[in-house]
Structures are given as C-alpha cells and as structure tokens.
Write a structure and sequence with these properties.
With 330 residues, this protein is an alpha/beta fold. The protein folds into two domains: 154 residues, Medium-chain alcohol dehydrogenases, catalytic domain (Quinone Oxidoreductase, Chain A, domain 1), CATH 3.90.180; 143 residues, Rossmann fold (3-Layer(aba) Sandwich). It has twelve helices and 14 strands. Strands 3, 4, 5, 6, 13 and 14 form a six-stranded mixed beta sheet that branches. Strands 9-8-7-10-11-12 form a six-stranded parallel beta sheet, sandwiched between helices. Helix 8 links the parallel strand 10 and strand 11. Helix 4 crosses helix 5 and helix 7 runs parallel beside helix 8. It comes from Sulfitobacter alexandrii.
Length: 330
C-alpha cells in the first residue's frame, strides 16, 4: 500500500512524502478499504503547515478527512459490510490507497452516487448545514453574511439558505465568481478585501444588519464581519484561511454585544448524539441524490502525483476542488 505522510510541519509540497508499506489485513470487526477518491481541504493543508491549531498531532501523520472507497476484505465478526461495498470512511488519515477501518467507521455510500461527489458529501456540506441550523435561530426572510463565499462551504451555505428562504450577502475577492454564486441563489455578492467599508456595503445590500455572519478567514476579516452584523448579532468562525488570530473591535463586542463563536465539524461529531448524526447523514444523502451537493472538480491526481496535486490546490483563482485518486484504481 501507499500513503502520504509528513514527519514535520511545513509547506505541504516540501514535507509530504509517499511511503510504501505491506498491505494490512483486517482484524475482528474491521474491513480493508481500497480508496478510489480522497479530498484535499484547506484544513488538511493548514494541519500540515502546523497552523490549524486544533490539537497536537503525533508525527509522522497522514492527512485527509474525506474519501470514497470499496471494501476488498473483511475481518472476523463483520456483520454489516461485504466485499464490494462502497463506503465513505469516517475519521482521518485518508491520503492512502488502502485503509483499515472498524466497520462502524465505514458507513455505506449512497447507492448510485457519483464516487467523487460522495467523497465530498460529509465535510463541507455538513459544516454548511450546521452553520445555518445550529448557531442562531433563523427564520424565512432573515439575512446572513459570509466571507470566502466562493469556497465549497460558502456555496453550500448559499444553496441551503435559498431552500430555507434565508437571504445571503456573500463577500468574495474576485469578480469572476459572482455569476456562479448568483446561479447558486446568492441574493447579493460584494467584491471586497474586507476593509473598513465592508460593514456599510453589507448593510446597504441587505437593507438591514444581518443577524448572523460566517467567517472562514480570521484575522481582520472577523472584525469586518462583526462590524457588519446587527447589535447582539453573532459571528461564527469556522476557518482560518488567513492563518491569523481572529480580531474583533471592543466597540462591537463590548458596546454592541456582538457574540463570537467557533465551529469545528470534528468536535460536533465528538459530541453529537447518534440520532443527530443519523439525521445529518440522511439529509446530506438526500441532497446528494437531488444534485444540491454537486461540487465542481478542477482536477484529480493519482496519489503518485501528490506533489502536483498539492501545488494545484495552493493556486489562487481555482473554481473547483482538487482530489486524489487511489493508485490501484487510477
């Protein structure tokens, strides 16, 4: 088997290496999965760089939190999976062409789903849905604002909000993505670097201050969103694309009582009840089947070309995801 590892933090193209190991065998209640597609997400790159800030990571480590694969061997006592089943692994360390998973960590993929789209089903769409439903009580006609709106999470937020009748102001830094966001259902798109003028632009676009802001960038961008929301509004930060700590002015937090919250999908999974997880997965499967979760794919690279894939993922101006394919299926 082949897998990507990093032994130290640094630039992904410099520290990621591909290693060969003997094919593992599944133990009791375990299955062996040959991965077909693996996702590359900003969180993966930040973790490699040592900038994600979640938890200390034991090195060497293998990145990757989204994948689609096929069961090709089962261990003793496995009851719910068989050779040939398509699965969506849960957990991490998925940049490998072969995985050993406890059968409960390998839920079946939706029947008939496109493998690439299925690999992308859980992380970004799940985050988008929970940002809209678990943070603030929103009603039809309410406004929200988000930055990095052309990200995969951002575009899912737009689509889910449109279905619920929630209106969105979407902040981007490139003119060429405005049309795609409008097609997704964006009510307003602002091209801005998140400067001091953003709050006024957001309020003019919405006609009133939004009650919720979603921040994927951090640094000064968090403060720009805090200035844009209503008094006692909420800013939820779920990313740190800038690599900077979140900064919010005292006038907004102290005198307007703007609340700053964090969201991390991994932590949600650690604390959610089985019923909540089942409800989320059922919802995502339904949306995948309906085509709502369709994500543009810019390119897919065999695992052997992981450095090319990482270089592509780091480029600005992309309009789609970069994925890895398992060498055994490339």
């Amino acid at each position: 088997m082949k897998k990507a590892i990093f032994r130290r933090h640094g630039a992904p193209t410099e520290v990621i290496e591909l290693v060969d190991e003997p094919d593992p065998q599944p133990g009791p209640k375990e299955v062996r999965v040959r991965t077909r597609f693996m996702t590359i997400n900003p969180a993966d790159l930040l973790s490699i760089e040592g900038r994600y800030g979640a938890e200390p990571m034991d090195l060497p480590a293998t990145p990757g939190v989204g994948a689609y694969g096929i069961v090709d061997a089962v261990g003793p006592e496995v009851t719910r999976l068989a050779v040939g089943d398509a699965v969506l692994p849960v957990g991490g360390g998925f940049w490998a062409d072969t995985l050993i998973l406890h059968e409960r960590m390998a839920p079946k993929a939706p029947v008939g789903a496109d493998p690439q789209q299925a690999a992308l089903m859980r992380a970004n769409p799940g985050t988008a849905w929970l940002l809209l439903t678990d943070m603030v009580a929103l009603s039809e006609g309410d406004w929200i604002v988000q930055n990095a709106a052309n990200s995969n999470v951002g575009r899912m937020v737009i689509r889910f909000a449109r279905e619920r009748g929630i209106r969105t102001v979407n902040v981007v830094r490139r003119d060429d993505v405005v049309g795609a966001l409008k097609d997704d259902g964006a009510d307003a798109v602002i091209v801005s670097d998140g400067g001091d003028e953003l709050a006024q632009s957001v309020r003019e676009a919405a006609g009133a201050p939004p009650k919720l802001a979603l921040d994927a960038i951090g640094g000064a961008s968090t403060g720009a969103l805090a200035a844009a929301v209503a008094d006692r509004g909420t800013v939820v930060t779920y990313g740190l694309l800038s690599g900077e700590d979140h900064r919010v002015a005292a006038r907004d937090m102290v005198f307007r009582d703007v609340r700053l919250r964090g969201f991390w999908l991994f932590d949600w999974y650690r604390t959610a009840t089985p019923e909540k997880m089942r409800d989320l997965h059922t919802f995502l499967e339904d949306k995948l089947a309906a085509g709502v979760l369709h994500t543009e794919i810019d390119a897919a690279y065999p695992l052997d070309r992981i450095h090319d894939a990482l270089s592509h993922a780091a480029r600005g101006g992309r309009n789609g995801k970069i994925m890895l394919t398992g060498d055994k299926d490339a």
